[in-house]
Write a structure and sequence with these properties.
The chain is mostly helical. It folds into two domains: 7-80, no CATH class; 96-142, no CATH class. It is 41% helix and 6% strand. A two-stranded antiparallel ribbon has the order 1-2. The longest helix is centred in the C-terminal third of the chain and has 24 residues, at 119-142. It starts with 11 loop residues before the first helix and ends in a 14-residue tail after the last helix.
Length: 156
């Protein structure tokens, strides 16, 4: 009997442990990705190799979320490719703050964006994003421990 596993219920570590998936670093594995590439200098090659090794290292520590990929892979690639230099520029997304009147509750959804074909679907996706943010904030608060208070005097 064939078992179906939903993608949302698995990650790379699960596939490695249960199905024996292995990382292949052989350059000839996808040779078509190696053909007709622009020439790069030795420094850029070293930097790209470091980005690759950093990414491969991060695969060992799931979940590999969007912010981590952006920080460890996308940003270094943009830097190496000179995309932070003119005529290019980077424009960030604005955060979304949702305030609950008279309850002193503000939910911050940094860089969140979603799309849908219907208004009902959009509302559901926004609800899911808010729930994820609330779960994250709850986990963050649970991991905080009170250490103590210390008074420090500074002479000027």
């Amino acid at each position: 009997m064939m078992q179906t596993i939903q993608a949302k219920d698995t990650d790379l570590r699960y596939l490695i442990n249960n199905f024996g998936i292995q990382l292949v670093l052989d350059d000839s594995f996808f040779h078509e990705w190696q053909e007709d590439l622009p020439q790069i200098d030795d420094l850029d090659k070293q930097l790209l190799d470091k980005v690759k090794m950093g990414y491969l290292n991060l695969l060992n520590y799931p979940p590999l979320l969007e912010d981590i990929v952006r920080m460890a892979v996308a940003n270094p690639l943009l830097f190496i490719g000179d995309f932070y230099l003119a005529p290019f520029y980077v424009k960030s997304e604005e955060s979304i703050d949702i305030a609950v009147p008279d309850e002193d509750v503000i939910i911050n959804l940094p860089g969140s964006n979603t799309q849908a074909q219907t208004l009902d679907e959009l509302v559901e996706r926004i609800r899911e994003a808010i729930e994820l943010c609330l779960e994250f904030e709850e986990e963050k608060q649970d991991s905080l421990d009170f250490v103590g208070i210390q008074r420090v005097a500074v002479e000027i």
